[in-house]
């Protein structure tokens, strides 16, 4: 085999997270095609080591403790005991493999996918430069580079070496006092486990509510739940300056120096660490996009085949395309893109729904894990009305036999957004303990365009929390 042929592959994927892995594996499945993943950090990506997996590993023990504290026969055994933080962190390490990606590399190789370490950058048509080594694709190049955490240019903030999401999920030292800058998913989830670990948490939120893209009632319930656990939440807050004279780079998840002083609305707040959870930036600035006539700033726009507009051999999947910045949606896009690449390589038409990404158009499910889970899919009431859709809102508290059996302090609310013209659900939100498993039924109803008349015959099992579906239907029976 010549050196040139060793660097030729049918598909090159830049980015080795679950999105890129899906794109590569689907593109070569059941064929003799070859694929390579180019990754400059860890194979497995953000989700495996710095986002989904470690964050949920940190959150779950607090959920279990809360359930136990409100379960007669169990709460008496606990007394005033709190979490064993060292044990929680050890379990987290079991999921992140202490940032060792060897098992992910082994999986890729077992699936017939080569792995090349280094920074991948497009250098021409179907070519990718990896630190001076040139890889050539016969069929396609896929971008799956994701996003990186943004840190605002507030005076003194960057110099203070604040934590970002990677520090929070790979926490090794628990600060006594933490300022969380932001009110979105990362901020709300991190505040949840920091409170469970015993930290004093102050959330500094520029807007007027948490989880601002969701339903207002969900925001209110989450804020109430965080406050009940000790969080201080400052809404419409203006952070104007940060001072931390002895900031030190002590490593991910370790306290970065001495106390920091934050000026918020003219008042001073002193904390031991700052967590910035103020948005993400697409990792597209150093991908060589300008070499093929594309803008190398911002999100990479695609069509519904995930093909980059104007470049038929280039695809963008996951967060970098800005369509739906969630791991499961990125993996979905990776599957679609892989199937499209495979079909085109085989000279087959792109017939069939699986070759077109449609789920990220108003059918996106998401679960936010705070003291109360927020499980949602589809459009909010506001989005629907802004789009000119005439809607009916069905909302009930989650108070059924299944919820009362789950835990004594169960409190939650459910809401459906119904398109009155078609009598189908176009949005759903569930808030409460353990409601994450309710959202898939709503997703199926939305994707399948199931009418409410038909949903009367989808009978929920008794006694489960799913019985709230019946209560929702009954709420419009009159």
Portion in helices: 25-40%
Using the CA coordinates, give the radius of gyration.
Answer: 24 Å
- The number of helical segments is 16
Number of strands: 21
Q: Label the overall shape.
A: globular
Average of the residue pLDDT scores? 96
Beta percentage is: 15-25%
The biggest beta sheet reads: 7 strands, mixed
CATH 2nd-level architecture of the largest domain: 3-Layer(bba) Sandwich
User: Structural class from helices and strands?
Assistant: alpha/beta
Domain Pyridine nucleotide-disulphide oxidoreductase dimerisation: 364-469
Protein name: NAD(P)/FAD-dependent oxidoreductase
GO molecular function: oxidoreductase activity
EC number: 1.-.-.-
What's the topology here?
Elements: H1 3-6, E1 8-14, H2 18-28, E2 35-39, H3 45-50, H4 52-69, H5 75-78, H6 85-96, H7 102-110, E3 113-117, E4 120-124, E5 127-130, E6 133-143, E7 147-149, H8 165-169, E8 177-181, H9 185-196, E9 200-204, H10 216-228, E10 232-234, E11 239-243, E12 260-264, E13 267-271, E14 273-276, E15 280-282, E16 314-316, H11 327-345, E17 365-369, E18 373-378, H12 381-386, E19 391-397, H13 401-406, E20 413-419, E21 424-432, H14 439-447, H15 452-455, H16 468-474
Helix pairs in contact: 2-11, 4-6, 4-9
